Amino acid sequence: MSTKPSLQTLIDRAKASIIQKTKAQNPATDAIAAALGGGTYSLYAYQDYLAKQQHPSSCDEDWLYVWGARLKVTRVQGTYATGTVVFSGLTNIVSIPAETIIKTQSGVEYEVTAETQSDQPVPVQCLSSGTTGNIAAGVSLFLVTAVTGLDPDSITSNDISGGTDIEDISHYRTRVEAAYNERYAVGRPEDYKIWAISSHPDVDFAKVADCFPDAGNVTVYIGQKENDPVLTDGVKDAAQIFIDSQRIGGVIVYVLHISTNSLSVTLADVSDVTTRQSIEQALQTYINDRMGDDDPITPGQLVIEISKITETFSLISPTTSVTPAKSEVITFGGVTWQ
Length: 338
Known about the structure:
It holds the Pfam family Baseplate_J. The protein is an alpha+beta fold and 338 residues long. It has helices spanning 7-22, 27-52, 61-70, 169-181, 189-199, 233-246, 273-289, 299-307; strands spanning 82-87, 95-96, 101-104, 109-112, 116-117, 122-126, 140-143, 155-161, 205-210, 217-223, 252-257, 259-268, 314-317, 328-337.
């Protein structure tokens, strides 16, 4: 906890010191005390700033990248959506140059990646990374770069996919913290959690069963804090390889997918559609955030979350606490309205 004195306290201290040493008090005393107090306050503030940068859990984003570089943890960048589009209403076949720009009605722009005849599927790539570049088949696009012989309003997408967002900064911070803490990892259950989270950007949590299924074994269940917490086999395999590279000798580690236990909620006395949607979103977020915890979800906790949206409701079910097994997480099974 910071022990930095307030600015006024430092000014008062400076003023008292000046008066004590000079035996004088006049307008100049106040001005000098304010200058000294302000300068000292800045020094305290800078010390606080430096202290925050000493650990990846509290440092600023710029320093987080410095920590990441030292610990060899790179923030996963977004990828660019790719796919093809087709041109219709052609009277003649024309060549569509590479770097021709097209866009959606919402303004997302794509670039033709290779010169292609207009009667063929035309390969494109989104100009910006992220999921906004992913569009389904059948979406209308428009020419930005004029091409002679083409109707600028006759472009339709095939599936354009593969765009991913840059890794969330809070998730990146978690991985950097995990790498920082690895220096002290010796094979405790919490160390396996750290190794699992460090193994792949998609791993948000891990649950560890020590001495399972047999003595000398450790089973690590991994997942993500999403509506569907189950990761791909590729992520599971990457986690297995990474943990095997970190664990102590003589221990057999099994990395498995987390299982799910769906929790459905029944509510009454809420008729407004918007309020219902807000409640469903709040419960979804609350349960997702709890993924990886071993503690039960109680009816009282659900009431607290719902009460943040409205005070007028009745919780019909669940009526008892729901505790996840070591190999599972609780997922949101939706709301039944009465």
